[in-house]
Amino acid sequence: MIKHKKAQWPWHGLTALVLIGLAVSLYYATSVISYEWRWNRVPQYFAYQAEVAQRVAENGTIEAIVSKGDMASVTVRDESGGEQVFEVEQASVQLSRGDDVAEGDLIGVTHHWAAGPLAWGLWTTVWISVASGVLGLLIGLFAGLCRLSNNPTLRDLSTVYVELVRGTPLLVQIFIFYFFIGTVLNLSREFAGVAALALFTGAYVAEIVRAGVQSIAKGQGEAARSLGLSAGQSMRHVVLPQAFKRVLPPLAGQFISLVKDTSLVSVIAITELTKSGRESITTSFSTFEIWFCVAGLYLLINLPLSHMASRLERRLAQSD
Fold it and tell me: Where would you find the membrane-spanning parts of this chain (predicted)?
């Protein structure tokens, strides 16, 4: 009996209609409040032409102005007989040969491309996420194994750590770490933010590791011990590799959540992506455009992470 594959295009069409409906609803909502879209203001918050003023360091006289296409080389001889040479844009030069100039006078300007606040905020979010993610993974792995330890002290301390961190809001932990621990130890706000995020992530990773290890049949460890491996060797070479395959999806989800949680460090004046977005809104008055860009940048980070985790999960599944 031949099974006929059901057509999928009606469902894809329904998906497209839903997305179109959401877009129309958004447009209608902005038209109701008479919002004027200004997407032309957004690019400058990613990259812009920065102006650099070239000023005289000492009193002197303009000795020569040599044109070089769009640029000009301006030579200033100071009172001590030394020369200062400035490479500036031709159109910005408002002086003539023989003019006297004083310290701080403007010779001309140059322009160069510079990263905007959203680009810098994206970079800050990425490096904070990577640093706190790596530290959180190490802390979580250690704490998760301590929770499985036969040593009562290690087990109790790791349990207190996990329950304390998971039972309190991350925002409160950031405040405590920065204003109390950071003040006592004289830590920078960046260090305090990374440490708070790492400890928070480590508590959840510890529970993921503990659940993953306990999901492996006890016979695996017993078989490894019967072959002459020590407890540490059987855990490292037999149990953990199998547990890793099972904990990969929740670990990926935890790190994706970590990227979004970095927005909370803005409360201690770290200019990450969300804070950069708020600052950009105050100068551009393009509220919706900036927030859509910020959301898109978070997706730009998280979608590749999710895709790589899915590919790695499929590859590990094929190795079974």
Answer: 12-30, 126-148, 160-181, 288-305
